Amino acid sequence: MKIELRYFTGTGNSLKVLETCNTVFLESGNLTNISEISINETSIPDSDLLGFCFPVYAFGIPRICRKYLKRIERFRKQQKVFILITAGDSDESGFAVKECKNVLSKKNCEIVYTGIVRMPINWTTSPVPPFPPSKEEAIEIIKDGETQAQEIAKDILEGVRTYHDFNYPKRYSKVKFYWDYLLFKYLGIQNMWRLFEVYDSCNGCQLCAKICPTDSIKIINKKPVWSKTCEQCMRCVNFCPQELIYQTQGGSTKGRNKYREPSFKPRQQKKNFS
Ligand SMILES: Cc1cc2nc3c(=O)[nH]c(=O)nc-3n(C[C@H](O)[C@H](O)[C@H](O)COP(=O)(O)O)c2cc1C
Ligand code: SF4
Ligand code: SF4
Question: How far is it between the farthest Cα atoms of the chain?
Answer without folding.
Answer: 56
